[in-house]
UniProtKB/TrEMBL annotation:
InterPro entries hit by this protein: STAT, STAT_TF_alpha, STAT_TF_CC, STAT_TF_DNA-bd_N
Gene3D superfamilies linked: STAT transcription factor, all-alpha domain, STAT transcription factor, DNA-binding domain
A GO biological-process term: signal transduction
Keyword terms, alphabetized: Coiled coil, DNA-binding, Nucleus, SH2 domain, Transcription, Transcription regulation
Example of a GO MF term: DNA-binding transcription factor activity
Gene Ontology cellular component annotations, sorted alphabetically: nucleus
Coiled-coil ranges (or none): 109-136
Matching PANTHER family: SIGNAL TRANSDUCER AND ACTIVATOR OF TRANSCRIPTION
Organism: Lates calcarifer
Subcellular location: Nucleus
Record-given protein name: STAT transcription factor all-alpha domain-containing protein
Ranges for domain STAT transcription factor all-alpha: 115-259
């Protein structure tokens, strides 16, 4: 009866061409009790999807068990109903733990979004501070050079030379304090970026790979890479901008003969490059697992000497 209903449903949807031969399966089950079970299961596994294979297995199990309940078919129906209810509970529990729509996962993703957005905001502030430092350096350099020329041309200004030098010294100290503040902001960005990179490469990416494995065996899980791609791209962009701002600070120190040029924190730049390297090393993943054209619904099942396709991202 079930196979007849499936066949009628396929006819109504005009989906009988790619679908399974339900009438043939019915005849096979009713008439061919003595035929080989292994041949039929192999045929189903090679021709149709895994769900149909389990359906056929359940039908055979039902036929085998039916003879024990010929006098009490109601008991068989009750047992089957209880088994199906328990199966639904197990599937619902597994989907809640593994699915991306659970409250815990959504909360974790919101925290990652906030962390990435905070990195973007902080690097934007650093870029403004570095630009203001360039302006302060230019003003100080202009005052020092023009005042020196004026003193050489007019000896009467020599008395004011000490006051001008004191003002320039105060300006230089302010520049150094501002630069130290910018460097501290960069260190804070890198510390926060380190936590996000660890969360992406050590937690989120392995969890996505696990979901992909479950999807390959028919699990109803989300294998989208959109969130990971967005986070990886945003953090990598922030780290690249950090490296650029560090290079600008180094160029400023050399250009204006800053006294802190020799003590420039090289370890900060090395730390930035190490985070960027770790992020990029884990950025390339297999988006679609290898599949054969003859079995598109069953990835990771390959035969020797047969062509297959895969996609990286």
């Amino acid at each position: 009866m079930y196979l007849d209903e499936q066949w009628n449903h396929s006819l109504q949807e005009n989906n009988f061409l790619p679908g399974p031969d339900f009438p043939g399966m019915k005849d096979y089950l009713v008439v061919g009790k003595t035929c080989c079970y292994v041949d039929c299961t192999c045929y189903l596994k090679d021709t149709y999807n895994l769900s149909l294979f389990f359906l056929f297995f359940l039908i055979l199990l039902f036929l085998k068990t039916q003879k024990h309940f010929q006098d009490e078919p109601l008991n068989l129906a009750v047992i089957l109903s209880e088994c199906l209810q328990e199966e639904k509970k197990v599937l619902a529990s597994a989907s809640e733990k593994q699915g991306c729509g659970s409250p815990a996962v959504q909360q974790k993703w919101k925290e990652l979004d906030r962390g990435v957005n905070e990195l973007k905001r902080q690097i934007s502030e650093v870029k403004k501070e570095v630009k203001s430092l360039e302006f302060l350096y230019e003003n100080l350099d202009y005052v020092q050079k023009t005042w020196q020329n004026k003193v050489e041309q007019d000896s009467g200004l020599a008395q004011s030379n000490a006051a001008v030098k004191e003002g320039c010294l105060k300006q230089a100290n302010f520049i150094m304090q501002t630069k130290e503040m910018v460097l501290q902001q960069i260190v804070d960005i890198l510390n926060q970026a380190e936590q996000i990179v660890a969360a992406l490469t050590d937690v989120e990416l392995p969890e996505w790979k696990r979901r992909q494995q479950l999807a390959c065996i028919g699990g109803p899980v989300d294998t989208s890479l959109d969130h990971l791609e967005e986070w990886f791209t945003a953090v990598a962009d922030v780290l690249i901008q950090v490296n650029q701002e560090l290079q600008k600070l180094q160029d400023q120190s050399k250009k204006y003969n800053s006294p802190d040029a020799s003590s420039f924190p090289r370890e900060t730049e090395n730390f930035t490059l190490s985070l960027l390297t770790k992020l990029l090393a884990n950025a390339l993943v297999v988006d679609k697992q290898p599949i054969m054209s003859s079995l598109p619904q069953r990835p990771q099942i390959l035969k020797t000497g047969v062509r297959f396709t895969a996609a990286v991202r």
